[in-house]
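tool_call: predict_structure(chain=1)
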Amino acid sequence: MGHSNGIITAPISIEDVRQTLGDASYDLGTLCLSNNVNRYSFIKPVEEDTPADIQFTNERYINSLIPVKYIAGDSAPLGYIYYYRKPYSWYRLDDFIGYIHNEYPVRGSLADIPDTVDFETGAIARYFYYDTTKRPLLSLLLGANGGLWKARIIWIININGQYRTFAFRSSYYYEHRVGFYPLVYKDLYYLLRNAGNETFEVDAFVVGLPPSHTLFDKDEFMEVPIGVCFTCYPASPVCTPNKTFTLKRPKKRCWLTLDIVDAGNGEERYVPENTPIRFLLTYNDENVFVDGNYLFGTGEKLIEEDSRINESTNYVSGSVEIPDVQFNYQPGWYSPEIGHNADREVYDEGLHTTYLYWDRKVAGDEFKMEVGFNYLDPNYRYDE
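tool_result:
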């Protein structure tokens, strides 16, 4: 058969290998050791102390490459190309039977992420695709034994001489969407805002987490504890899994929080299911959180968080409306018991509604509207 479209099949000749690799040599040893050999091909020359033909297996493929590892707390890896264990005992021509010159574990790139990124930039996402071959090459290299894994993007930031490692949320299996949106993470904002630097160098790269990994079930943004080890995605002609860029210091912001909770005990005191409430939070007359008919649930904790740039004089205000309720088998209206940090509380007897107001004021670093409420159920019977 020979070779076609970068694939070598039996019967095989030196000429097939030369043309597939684009190498000028006719020496088998030189071809086996050529830098033109695709190290990621499932079938390729490998070290085995025998002149006889060998069988290519998942285990042999895993042993043919040394993945790039990263340990949290260290600086970023110097490169992301996996080390290839080339043959040195014997050179076998038949090691090229089934060789695929364009077979790679994963395809995708972070290369086009801007060289300078504002902390306030919108979400940046990139896709990494599992190779089109039927062999689960990336899964094997990540230690997932051919099964599922998660992709995550890692940031390393040198902050005052210390390498801090951050993992952003993972996304999908197989067609891996990785990305970051620093603005939504308050802890990262304060860390960088208070560090004193005007810019930070970020080394970003993609890693794969098999189910056995420490962070596999922790699907949130987090600072990674020192010592946690990751397997990096392999760099190749079709994969650039890393990018170094400059991150600007965050602009000063006001962090806004709306926190409404059922403060009852779940027995005689609680919020009846689907109790309608209203809330509004504005920043410089811009509606940030607003709902004119929110159906609050029993035992619910409603939290909304956002932020706005706060580098001059800005103003914030808010309101929450909580109704009286009626209980089955009991006549009349029942008012809530309310705890709050509002500036004013007003009760309208005609509308059977309590109004909480946070009056317009100069915004600081944080502004919170906190409300806890519940109702005493007149139908509840205490144990005697």
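agent: The longest strand covers residues 199-209. Proceeding to next step.
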